[in-house]
């Protein structure tokens, strides 16, 4: 039974490596996204963009059960000023960092001072779901490292309980024939002079 437990342990240790790699990728990507967002917030400048045109892709396609979307996916055009110069941005709202675009809306955006055409709200869409995925990944990685690498493989089964006598559990039993020989050697006159 001990060999079987060890084989299962080793197969799980190495069989779970794809899950470990996925969780490691989630952790690295999360750290990258958050650090990039922090860097952009500290180096990019802030401005206000105005939505001038917006259209939801769900309104464009024919309303049928196969093309209906439950999540809004608007595209639009925004204009904003950088150092007195007007810039225009066109694209999907999610690329900008928003989920809704209505003409006339004012959106606080950040722009790259080196390239003012690159703008973003720096809002992390899906951050709550990402935080849950990150927490689950960290919990799995912690358990995996502890269980399979720090704790080590399963040890042999403990001996049967001998009424609480731990010394007797590890001592080799004395064969009955040896005990009889000792008594015969001693005999009735053992120890008399």
Architecture blueprint of SSEs:
Layout lengths: L1 H14 L1 H27 L1 E12 H4 L13 E9 L2 E8 H4 L9 E7 L2 E6 L6 H24 L15 H5 L5 H11 L7
Helix pairs in contact: 2-5
Mind explaining what this structure looks like?
The chain has 193 residues and is α+β, with helices and mostly antiparallel strands. It folds into two domains: 1-43 and 126-184; 45-121, no CATH class. The chain is built from seven helices and five strands; from the N terminus they run H-H-E-H-E-E-H-E-E-H-H-H. The chain has helices spanning 2-15, 17-43, 57-60, 93-96, 127-150, 166-170, 176-186, and strands at residues 45-56, 74-82, 85-92, 106-112, 115-120. It has a five-stranded antiparallel β-sheet with strand order 3-2-1-4-5. Strand 4 and strand 5 (115-120) form a beta hairpin. Helix 2 (17-43) crosses helix 5. The longest helix is centred in the N-terminal third of the chain and has 27 residues, at 17-43. The model has no long low-confidence stretch (mean pLDDT 83).
